[in-house]
Sequence to fold (220 residues):
Amino acid sequence: MSEQPPAWKRPHQAEHRWPVALAIVFAIVLQFLTPQELAFDPKWLLPGVEVCLLLGLVAVNPFRIDRESTVLRILGIALVALASLALVWSTGRLVHGLVHGRDDDPGKILISGATIWLTNVIVFSLWYWLTDRGGPAARANARKIQPEFLFPQMTMTDTHHEWRPEYVDYLYVAFTNSTAFSPTDTMPLARWAKLAMTLQACVSFLIVVLVIARAVNALD
Fold:
């Protein structure tokens, strides 16, 4: 009798909805905390639509994410796409403002940069989680075996036989990529994953360099 494949390669119990829902709520709060001059106008529009989409997703599939549905997937992609739009808009406005030196308050500069940097981490973590192997429901049903992200636990089947990736693992990938500006222990295998991580690292690097440079200059 052959040994059972590791959990991530076979159908398994789906992950809970609440970790990713909390991350989305945090991203929405960060959008409200973004200074008015950096936020999409009107400031309430994108977060308001995101809240409606999130409530719809939670109402239809409130507990474990095991239901594969085209409608649910479109709603999820639309939700993350709106958050991405807010991120792109705020990043562009921040970079423009820093380059042209319109704000000399170092505290405000650092807070604005930190808010957008954290939003960058969450938005990309959601994209990684939503797209790797077809998304959380498809992973739970083992629809696709070939991974786009190779987590170290996938190669340690003797000690991590029941392990499978959940949202917090993708959040860790996004966080380390934003701090190291490169993959750490998890390797992107798919070309789209490599490009996405490159884009995220570029955004993070741009924010960090410009914010620190501007804040230091304002202190002089």
The chain has seven helices and two strands. Residues 69 and 203 are 32 Å apart (CA to CA).
